[in-house]
Request: fold
Amino acid sequence: MLDVHDLTITFGPTTAVRGVSLTAAAGTVTGVLGANGAGKTSTLLGILARAPRQSGRITFDGADVTGFDTGALVRAGIALCPENRRLFPNMSIEDNLLLGAYGTGRATRRTRLRDTYDRFGWVATRRAEPAGRLSGGQQQTVAIARALMSAPRLLLLDEPSSGLSPVAVDEVGAVLADIARDGTALVLVEQNVRLVRALCATAYVLAHGQVTASGPVPELLSDTAVSDAYLGTTA
Amino acid sequence: SPSGSPDSDVVKVGAILSLSGIYATLGPAQKNALQMGVEELNRTGFTVGGRKRTLEISYADDRSDAATTGVTALRELVQSQKVPVIAYGLGSDTYVPQLQRQPVPMVNMLDSSYPGILGLSDHLFLTRGASPTYVPGCLYYAKRKLGTTSISVITAKGEPYGEGLTQLVTKSAQAEGVRIAANSEFPLSSTDYSNAISAAVAAKPDAVYLSSVTAVILPVLKQLRQSGYTGPVIHSAGVNPNQAKAILGAQYDSIMKDNYDCAGTLPTTSQDPAAQAFAKDYQQRYDEYPQDLTMWAHDFPFIVAAAMTKADTVSDPAKIEQALKEIDVPQGTVSGWLPGDGGRLFTDRNARTASEVTAWCPGQDTLRSAMVFDVKDDAVVDPTFPQETCG
Amino acid sequence: MSALLVVEDVVKRFGGVAAVDGVSFTLDAGQVLGLIGPNGSGKTTLLGVLAGTHDPTSGKVTLDGRTASGRGAHRAVSAGIARTFQTTRLFGTWTLREALRLAHGERRGRPGWPDEQIANLLGLGDALDRPGASLTSAAQRLAMIALALATGPRVLLLDEPAVGMDGTEAAALAAAVRRAAGELGVAVVVVDHNMQFLMPLADTVLVMAAGAVLASGTPAQIRSDEAVIASYLGEA
Amino acid sequence: MTALGGAVGLSVLAYLLLTGLSGDQGQVALLVVVWTIALIGLNLIQGLGGYPNLAHAAFFGGGAYLSAVLLDTGLPMTVAALLAVAGVMAAGLVVALVFSRTRGQYFAIGTMFFTAVATLVFTNAADLTGGPNGRPVALGYSLEATVVLLAASVGVGLALFHWASVSRFGDRLRAIRADEDLAQHVGVPTSRVKLLAMVCSAGAAAWAGVLFGQYNGVVAPSQFTFGQSFLMFVALGLGGAGRLLGPAVGAAVVIGLTQLLTLGPGVSQIVLGVLFILVTLLAPEGVLGGVSALARRVRAARTGRADRSVRGEGAVA
Amino acid sequence: MSQVLVNGVFLGCLFAVVAVGLTLVYGVMEVPNFAHAGVIVLSAYTTWSASAAGLPFALAALAGIACGALVSVLTEVLAYRWIIDRPAAAPAVALGLMLILQNVALRLYGGEGRSLDTPYDRVLLRLGGVSLSGVKAALVVLAVVSLLALHLLLSRTSLGRAMRAVAQDREAAAILGIPMRRQYALAFLIAGVLGGVAAIAYAPTFQVSPYMADEVLLSAFVVVVLGGLGSVWGAVAGGLVLGVVEGLGSAYLSPAYQSAFGFLLLVSILVLRPGGLRSTNARRVA
Ligand SMILES: Nc1ncnc2c1ncn2[C@@H]1O[C@H](COP(=O)(O)OP(=O)(O)OP(=O)(O)O)[C@@H](O)[C@H]1O
Ligand SMILES: Nc1ncnc2c1ncn2[C@@H]1O[C@H](COP(=O)(O)OP(=O)(O)OP(=O)(O)O)[C@@H](O)[C@H]1O
Ligand SMILES: CC(C)C[C@H](N)C(=O)O
Ligand SMILES: [Mg+2]
Ligand SMILES: [Mg+2]
Reply:
């Protein structure tokens, strides 16, 4: 589904990502792991043309989308649930969700909205409130729901569990597993090892902007070198 | 070239005019007339110190803001250009502190503000009848010829000429026994006058008086007519047909119907052949109806030439100032001065002309003279009523 | 001797909704209290009331017997209560050193560590002269804690300090918090959803649900509390 | 102490300009000096504190009018001046109290409207202010004394600003500019700091107004409009907000351009507009910021190290 | 009294139309758009010169609105776009643009006032003791129609929602695939259209001049703050309140201090609600 080849991203003097290559297949969850500042967020932003790419070729669904701008990539079926949620604080929760389906028809938006409310019951009860009033974890949930509103074929998730209570993490995990089962490709940046274990078949480990290891998750996580260096003490 | 032949000395004098801003209905016309006057004067030139001279005017725009731009222009003219005499329009009081520091005679061609500018400084000269000399004519005429017994006054608050007019109108109305039905105001900067207009009209007056200058009162007049008022309107703005057309638009003729203006005599309605000739020249040259103030502006160069000749200097402001007080009405002028003591132009630094009430001629784009008069001790004297004919 | 921080029946309403609904607890110097609860249960709001960000609707907070609530954030800081935010907030263009100097300047004579020591404690030694915005997200969270520590607090309130940190980083942070509590006698309230980080760190744990206290006790007690497992911890 | 040296140097320069130039240029020199004094005040609340204060022209005019009125009651000039400054500072306190809960553009528009109302008062309270035509100002100081005071005020003002800027007060203001909520949470008493900055700022503007009135001999409402406030605001930004010399550079640029461009009605203004935009686009940190960035680049190029990571901010120029 | 109210409502509608244009641009770009005055002036002159050239009023009005829209978009494309990440620089650019636009009008058309004639110049509506001239009634109608249209656009359409999103978090909007540039241009386009509507609606009651919009713009900024920056309905409510309060104050207290009553209103509202009548700020300090 997604094939990233030799991606390099620099911010002024800092090179955040150096020659990263990765693939993600439909119906699977691909993990991206690594310490802070390893370049995970930058990689996701780079895929969506939101970070300055120095090099790299990106193929999506068999087509070369390297030159596409963000709008075109979104229309092609890619969605990102960004780091720090990035909801529109002064807009209602419902408007936030509808924006997730920007560019689709009115009827589609309505259907997906209903699906979202079915999936996250409490959101419906507060849909007219400004999103900025929600607690951190509630906002995170809405942010994930918003990313799902575009019914993406490739979903990029940047630490979706942050701020979520353990129960909520499990719930979100279940939802994501559902989505993957329906044929979406997921790329998951995550520190929560439990979630990674539960969802990801394969993963990449980044350090200093480079891929230092990759492979099936159980093997990666049992590799003590990897866990000590990049994941800390695993639970 | 207009500024004299090569074998003559060019004398530079200053003129501070309102070429832009809310008084921009006045400055450009003055500049036109000044230019005509200079050219006429320079055709023969004048002689000072045995040498032939021609005049050149250094113009400055006060942007209708005497206190800021005007004062700066005055400093510039006096300190850098060293002009010995200056013509100017509005803002007399603003120039006083600077005149205290660096005296120079300043000849006013326009300022009619109440109660008068001559008391402000000994260096100011006035070449026209001020508002106290023509406003009483408004009420005198309204009462006798329009049958007005009550009048509403609408004033532009924050515009000194208009505020002065209102005081004068109030005083004259009392003297004439005309009742002030309502006195309403609007802030100068506003663009909607409905409250002032409603208040004025609600009092059901026989006539409405609008206190301010052309650029300010014409929009008020327009809204006044739009609000349904059809009675007589009186003002002292010196509106000419060109301005009426431009500011009032297609309906100008009906809006200007029943409009009366009391101010200085107009060159076009004047009986004086010199004034009439000037009016024709001006109209031909600029394709514009000449206002009263054009005559005074036209005459300024001749006044300067006479004073310099008399003082026998082109550079000493003090001597020129003294000479101004002593000159007679100069040859070549068109304003129709009312000569003062001993035939002098200025009496107590004041040169006067007769005043006039004019009325709009519907369908003819012109004004007619309705009454010519003079004012002594706040009362109208020597009124004459020309035949009530237009064009 | 009575407790350092006494929280009595604090209620905070937004419009009609009670985000915090009658919470009471006490905290001694040097003690670390873990505060957990489902999303939206009122933890951040409670910290806000303690730190003077919000005025309580009713109830009060006393520090050393003096009322500390309802008087604005800067007064809370001068009384000795400092907090961090759930979403990172820094003076973005300032270097960490400049920011610490400011916070330090507002310390009002209470004992505390010098700026360098605070930075080193949190592993921010290299970051001292870099603008806050150029740090990684985890470093920014640590910088926020450094800022709070620089005000010389007697009570330190941390809102999800370990978000986005991996295990090693979280463990280092826990150690730093412990040292601050131990060496300076700072009382700490820490909110986090990362149980591997929080449980070993906390002396006692308070669980909130729907604005009220659901349970409190030692970490071990809480881990095995049925109600807490059902509403918060899950079957893990 | 390079800052102090610079302050003294600027004082001397101001004196030389004021005494050496006449006419148009003299007027420009006067306005530049007067604006510099007023902008030093603005540099506290706006430059350091980040509060877009558009009441400055009102304070400036307040000082000018109030001192003129007080002088005419027979008070000695210095007393009249001090009372005028104190009165305006009190007004500044009130404005600050009213608007201190508002931020950003709310503050800007609130204070802008305050200036609009002050202009109304200057225009309409004709008994005191002389009305729309303005009010002649009696000579309280000799012209020479006024010039000396103007020049000295520049130096003293800059020195005071420098001192405030490097003190804790300056840090607190900068913190408010960066993030007011966070500042509160590290213990900065933000309301008090803002009030103090606003009051000092008003005082500087009032003092500038006193001297302006003395020199110009006439004060009029048109000199103290919200447009002037806006121009002052822009001047500080163009010079370099928060930088020591920002006021002087900003005043010189804005006054110089507005007064010296004479390309005929309209055209000068158009050119002025284009210049404002260009300076803003090309020098994000103001002229001074641009100059120091350029200097840095030149230095870097000369030493061969293209050190592009340097990112200073809020530094004292 | 009722006449004063009617006058106030008329003014309020004018303020609202201008203010909504400002608030929209502010909302999207955080720009205090002083250049809006220039947009209004140029629209009015375009309409004037088109009708002077013999075009029927309706066409001339459309030309004026089109000119407003074009000029407004040009200010965005040529100037504001380049300072998009530096809101602090916006005032200087806005001032520069205002100088340019106003003086372009001055150069092109001179400083004297011009009259804009409409087919409904002579209409006068009377109801009981209250009267409203046709030109003013037309403004009220135009204002209501255009504001309603705008409201529907912003609240009901995806486009409007996207515009509000861009206003609040540019990067987040971009991530969702919303084309930012287009939204900016669109906001300025709408503001320009509203400026054009304001111009052709009120120029006939006043006159066309380079300075015609100065005073109105000041009031409109106050309205924007009264209503809460970025809030369209706030601007409408604020406009009406300001118009009526200033009208009442000027009719019953002192016309010279008309805008001072607006100031008192502003002060009292800001003291009670620092975020304006319809404060939309839901950002939490936590
Ligand atoms: N906009 C930016 N400007 C400058 N540097 C940046 C920017 N964004 C990221 N960086 C730098 O790029 C590097 C990689 O950052 P990135 O955010 O991609 O890491 P990450 O793996 O997502 O880390 P985290 O776990 O903290 O989220 C870091 O050194 C960071 O400081
Ligand atoms: N300013 C506010 N206005 C209205 N409601 C608010 C406000 N702040 C918080 N709330 C509501 O109060 C409740 C508690 O929020 P709070 O942020 O305290 O939760 P929390 O326990 O910190 O949750 P999380 O774990 O998700 O951070 C939430 O429902 C939230 O929507
Ligand atoms: C403005 C006024 C002084 C001039 C006016 N035209 C008049 O004749 O009185
Ligand atoms: Mg990241
Ligand atoms: Mg929280």
Q: What stands out?
A: The longest strand of chain D covers residues 135-136. Strands of chain D lie at 135-136, 218-219. Residues A 11, 14, 16, 34, 36-42, 83; C 134, 136-138, 164 surround adenosine-5'-triphosphate (ligand 1) (CB under 6 Å).
